[in-house]
Amino acid sequence: MTPMTTLTEHLKTQKTPESLIGLISNITATCHDIAKLLHHGPMNDILGLAGAENVQGEDQKKLDVISNDMLKESLAGSGLVRGIASEEEENCVGCSDVGEYLVLFDPLDGSSNIDINSLVGTIFSVYRADENGRVEDRNFLRPGHEQVAAGYVLYGPSVILTLTTGHGTQMYMLDQNKGIFMLYNAKVQIPKATKEFAINASNQRHWAKPMQNYIADLLAGETGPRQKNFNMRWVAAMVGDVHRILCRGGIFTYPWDKKDPNKAGKLRLMYEANPMGFLVEQAGGKAFTDTMRILDIEPEHIHQRVPVILGSADEVDICIGYHTA
Ligand code: F6P
User: Fold this and answer.
1) Is residue 11 part of a domain?
2) How far apart are the first and last CA of the chain?
3) Residue 190 falls inside a structural domain
4) Alpha-carbon distance 85 to 247, whole Å?
5) Which of 111, 114, 158, 230 has a CB 3.0–4.6 Å from the CB of 218, allowing a cystine?
6) Which of 106, 100, 107, 91 is nearest to 141 (CA)?
7) CA of 236 to the centre of ligand 1 (A)
8) What is the pLDDT of residues 12-57, one digit of tens each?
């Protein structure tokens, strides 16, 4: 049997700087600890609500808070990180004044799935720190195309790391006994065409007209304008839906809707759309809002929300076509 390549070995073949390898190892080691907690979920008394709301006004689960604290502490102690921004923190948190990187994360995406033992994940995004000294929120407001690494760890039947450092997208599986991530897909490639879509259809009446028309045409199947039948899937955790798309193609959208006029979409630019956009583009897919490439958005604040349309390149083009017609 050919020996498998470890995460660290593979990053070295890509000439990844030592400091970035150290940072990614730090994040993935913490994710391994989060995976262990999830594995013993009900026995660890970690399920249910924490009894507070996060900065987004959403109920925090105990595990949201625990995983946020675990990542924050290990990154702060690494000496590699200038500061972190998290979906669960109101403002950025300074770490080391000489740290080389800024890290943004959603510690537990899809947390409504925790209590039903379904898919959840940790999403992260890494930038080089640009100025010396203590960080402020404004230091994080950089477009997604400046990310130097992005990834997620999916806590499912297997624990999977999907990662890009700008040299394609790779998938690694956690060897639970050794605590090491092993490479199993060195070149993730999203098929250009698809017959599968993911959207929370219960919001249909709130969508803008172009999205209503697009989905109506998919649902019309082979007798409609698209002349083929589509299948629908919805995990209710972006990390699960994006993982499926990276594995077998598809289109995922959480579009603009008029449910809450203060929100341009549900998903967060800095913790979800940007890292997933980077992974998807590096795998040959596309990631757009309804008007522009996600990675070109100049962020206005760290908790900004954006509409998201990503996945198989041809299908994203078709969907965007409805919005620009
Ligand atoms: O971050 C929020 C999130 O949980 C995503 O992971 C997921 O795609 C979406 O919300 C699910 O939304 P809804 O509750 O509308 O299905």
Assistant:
1) yes
2) 54
3) no
4) 29
5) 230
6) 91
7) 5
8) 999 999 999 999 999 999 999 999 999 887 666 666 666 666 666 6
122 contacts 152 by C-beta, under 8 angstroms = yes
pLDDT, tens digit, for every residue of 166-195? 999 999 999 999 999 999 999 999 999 999
149 and 206 share a domain? no
Q: Specify if 26 maps to a domain.
A: yes
C-alpha distances (whole Å) from 270 to each of 86, 101, 315 are 9, 15, 24
Count of positions (residues) in the chain: 325
Indicate the residue type of 20. Answer: L
Residues 11 and 109 grouped into a single domain: yes
Please report, as a single letter, which amino acid is at residue 99: G
**Residues 149 and 231 occupy one common structural domain:** no
- Please state whether the predicted TM-score (pTM) of the whole model is above 0.85: yes
Return the residue matching tokens 């990834």: 151
CA angle 254, 192, 276 (to 5 degrees): 40
User: Residue 186 C-alpha to ligand 1 middle, in angstroms?
Assistant: 28
Q: Please identify, among 165, 185, 205, the residue that sits at the C-terminal boundary of a domain.
A: 185
Q: 200: Cβ below 6 Å to ligand 1?
A: yes
For 29, the domain range is 7-185
Residue 238 CB less than 6 A away from ligand 1: yes
- Is residue 311 within 8 A of residue 190, CB to CB? The reply is yes
pLDDT digits (tens, 9 = 90+) for 120-139: 999 999 999 987 778 999 99
